[in-house]
Amino acid sequence: xxxxxxxxxxxxxxxxxxxxxxxxxxxxxxxxxxxxxxxxxxxxxxxxxxxxxxxxxxxxxxxxxxxxxxxxxxxxxxxxxxxxxxxxxxxxxxxxxxxxxxxxxxxxxxxxxxxxxxxxxxxxxxxxxxxxxxxx
Length: 136
Description:
Radius of gyration: 16 Å
Distance between the termini: 33 Å
Order of helices and strands: EHEEEHEE
Helix content: 10-25%
Strand content: 15-25%
Structural class: alpha/beta
């Protein structure tokens, strides 16, 4: 591969990402329930959750080492945000206004939208937001 060749960066899209979990079924069902999605059919060691934009979270089990916490942010339609919060409350998961989890039970109003952070069963720091970050 030659690195001096033009690269069609305008066509690059994220297709999937692996999410390590101690129990792939538990974690996939958790995020699918919170976001109002469905868990797909297992594909080898992967259990996909289709986000509806051509991207899947592919849950895979990691039993031989501790799971390193990652951050996953989900842009949700404003009219679905309240339902996400209701589902978090229904399953007893605390949400926070900030990524450091110092403002429990509160949401933020970043970039003119609404957002919240919460942990999944393995401690991944999940975020839901109704407006994307304003980037310089």
